[in-house]
Design brief:
Helix content is 28%, strand content 32%. The protein has 2 helices and 5 strands. 26% of the residues are buried.
Length: 96
């Protein structure tokens, strides 16, 4: 079933990421939940898939979080700006 709540959170994150110069879009999968694909246009190999889901039992289950692709909670969804700052920092292209 299509999850409007998840999609809304991800679309908010996409807007914030775009304001930071990153290319981001919501990807809808037939076999799993939607997620946000983010790419640094200045270094295309720098990319990340951000998931969005409620917290597990160990955290507050009423709260939704953005999650890193490796399964670590990143940031609460009520602050997409803060989450975008973290993603932008991780995908930042650093000169040699």
């Amino acid at each position: 079933m299509f999850d409007e709540r998840r999609l809304g959170y991800l679309e908010g994150l996409v807007r914030e990421l775009g304001e930071r110069g990153l290319v981001a879009r919501v990807v809808r999968s037939r076999s799993g939940p939607a997620f946000c694909r983010v790419v640094n246009p200045d270094a295309a190999s720098m990319s990340e898939n951000v998931m969005c889901a409620p917290a597990p039992d160990i955290l507050d289950q009423r709260s939704w979080y953005f999650w890193w692709s490796w399964g670590e909670p990143m940031h609460q969804v009520d602050d997409p700006c803060g989450a975008a700052v973290k993603v932008a920092r991780v995908l930042e292209a650093r000169g040699a």
